[in-house]
Write a structure and sequence with these properties.
The complex is a heterodimer.
Chain A: E1 2-5, H1 15-19, E2 24-27, E3 31-34, H2 43-52, E4 58-61
Antiparallel strand pairs in A: 1-4, 2-3
Chain B: H1 6-11, H2 20-28, E1 32-33, E2 39-41, H3 44-51, E3 56-57, H4 68-75, H5 89-98, H6 109-112, H7 114-126, E4 133-135, H8 137-141, H9 143-153, H10 160-173, H11 182-209, H12 215-220, H13 231-262, H14 264-272, H15 277-287, E5 294-299, E6 303-305, E7 308-310, E8 316-318, H16 320-323, H17 358-375, E9 381-382, E10 402-404
Parallel strand pairs in B: 2-8
Antiparallel strand pairs in B: 1-2, 3-5, 4-10, 5-8, 6-7, 9-10
The chains are: A alpha+beta, B alpha+beta.
The complex binds iron/sulfur cluster.
The site of iron/sulfur cluster has 15 residues of chain A, from helix 1.
């Protein structure tokens, strides 16, 4: 599975980084970073992060990010 | 009826089971000035705008009606926790508290608690065995978050009873109860808060020499570049985390359980597909938010809100639960839809004061409701509907939720 975070929408509350800390992380104070390729054991956590993102900035799925590759 | 009495009608205990018609009335009138000079706002765009407006203060000193009791307590050395401060002080203290709690420095702390939370939830649910009727508040929704926040902070379990008594007094002191002298109640609340803070301060100090892996040890240990807490700051922050860790999650879980029993199709769907629970929790935060309104704000200067001038220092009450059902923002706002997509609710507030404990509350509610649905059958139902509610119009939720299952 791949993910893409729309960093223009992202407000940096880091809810995703709490819920899937191996996939989403904070660089320094505010900027969000993430690993776009999600391993199978992280899928469930990423699903929770997608649901919890207040601004729905995370897209996940086989097609996510297809247009940015 | 006049919108000048809306706040009185909202805080009236009779409105607790269903305040939503009053919130609709509020939205229709935009900004509603109250008979006591406070202002009520309940439309989504305006509430969001105010939550992000640096001219809106959370500091009690910014209010025209300064609370004498607060000034006395401060003269005695008490310092407010970050929920009652503006930036830059707010940011400094929140940053120090975040260091051992979440990313970037402690990315895994909440994640690591999940197994513990699931185990505590399961133990409580096992206690349902052999009983036809359970109280989802006293038997489940209350003990779960209280045990979790106690463990997270590192409080000996034998002391939790005393902390519960202090918490009850502090929470009651925030209430709007026409029958009681507010000054007396506030004083009692401050005394209980101070005793609790002293206790937590002593406990934290004892961790300095004997650290373990809990939050109190981390808060007195190795400071980051933001510097460390002064002792008074540590005390008020620890007390805030403990109190906020109590009531809000209890209400999120209880409101959730009640909502799911009232919507059997949604409950059935979630039983079949627990992967939908994270989004159902978001919908609960929109549909029945445990914090209904924020009563502690005031403008630092005269401001215009939807054509109304709110004068500097006036109490400004932001009704999150009304904004969450604004039809201009959410299609079919009164429908509970666990799969709702575009759901930027205000259940955790927004802006610099957005809920510090949100990630923990989400995890607890998801685990609790999933475990509960797995245990109680589709025919489980409340013995009384509506159930008896807590007094508070701010932290709104059932006091008891007797369920036959
Ligand atoms: S939860 Fe959403 S808004 Fe928050 S940091 Fe992650 S992507 Fe950004």
């Amino acid at each position: 599975m791949r993910i893409v975070v729309d960093l223009n929408r992202c407000q940096g509350y880091a809810q995703c980084a709490f819920l899937a800390p191996e996939v989403f992380f904070l660089r320094g104070d505010e900027a969000l970073g993430y690993r776009p390729r999600v391993s199978d054991d992280q899928r469930e956590r990423v699903g929770r992060a997608v649901a919890a993102c207040p601004v729905q900035a995370i897209s996940a799925g086989p097609a996510a990010g297809a247009d940015v590759d | 009826m006049s919108t000048e009495t809306l706040f009185r009608r909202i805080t009236d205990y009779a409105a607790r089971p269903d305040p939503y018609p009053l919130y609709a009335e509020l939205r229709e009138h935009g900004v509603a000035r109250q008979e006591d000079g406070s202002y009520l706002v309940g439309t989504y765009d305006e509430v969001v705008q105010l939550l992000h407006d640096p001219r809106i203060s959370s500091d009690a000193h910014s209010r025209a009606d300064v609370d004498e009791e607060l000034l006395r307590a401060e003269a005695d050395g008490m310092t407010p926790a970050f929920i009652g401060l503006d930036d830059p002080e707010h940011e400094r203290l929140r940053g120090i508290a975040m260091r051992p709690f979440g990313p970037p420095h402690s990315p895994g702390r909440i994640d690591a608690l999940q197994d513990d939370i699931a185990r505590i939830a399961q133990e409580l649910i096992d206690g349902f065995d052999g009983r036809e009727e359970v109280d989802l508040v006293d038997d489940f929704a209350y003990p779960l978050p209280v045990t979790v926040i106690g463990r997270l902070l590192g409080i000996p379990s034998g002391d939790m009873g005393q902390l519960r008594r202090w918490t009850d007094i502090v929470i009651a002191s925030l209430d709007f109860d026409p029958g009681e002298d507010p000054a007396v109640k506030r004083r009692r609340g401050r005394e209980a808060g101070r005793e609790m803070a002293d206790y937590l301060g002593d406990l934290a100090a004892s961790r300095r020499d004997h650290p373990s892996d809990d939050l109190l040890s981390a808060l007195v240990g190795d400071p980051g570049p933001e510097g460390a807490f002064r002792h008074e700051e540590l005390k008020s922050t620890a007390a805030l985390l403990l109190i906020a860790g109590h009531e809000t999650t209890v209400n999120l879980i209880t409101n959730g359980a009640l909502t799911l029993m009232r919507h059997p199709e949604a409950a059935a769907r979630l039983r079949n597909d627990p992967g939908l629970m994270p989004s159902a929790v978001e919908e609960l935060l929109r549909y029945e938010p445990p914090v209904q309104l924020l009563p502690q704000r005031s403008p630092l200067t005269d401001i215009e809100v939807a054509g109304v001038t709110v004068p500097r220092g006036a109490p400004l009450i932001l009704v999150l639960a009304a904004a969450n059902r604004d039809p201009l923002r959410f299609p079919e706002p009164d429908r509970f839809d666990p799969a709702r997509r575009d759901n930027q609710h205000l259940g955790f507030g927004s802006g610099i004061h957005s809920c510090f404990g949100a990630p923990l509350a989400r995890v607890e509610a998801r685990i609790a409701l999933t475990a509960l649905l797995a245990r109680i059958g589709a025919d489980a139902h409340p013995v009384e509907d509506p159930p008896p509610y807590r007094r508070s119009p701010v932290l709104r939720g059932p006091r008891h939720l007797l369920v036959r299952h």
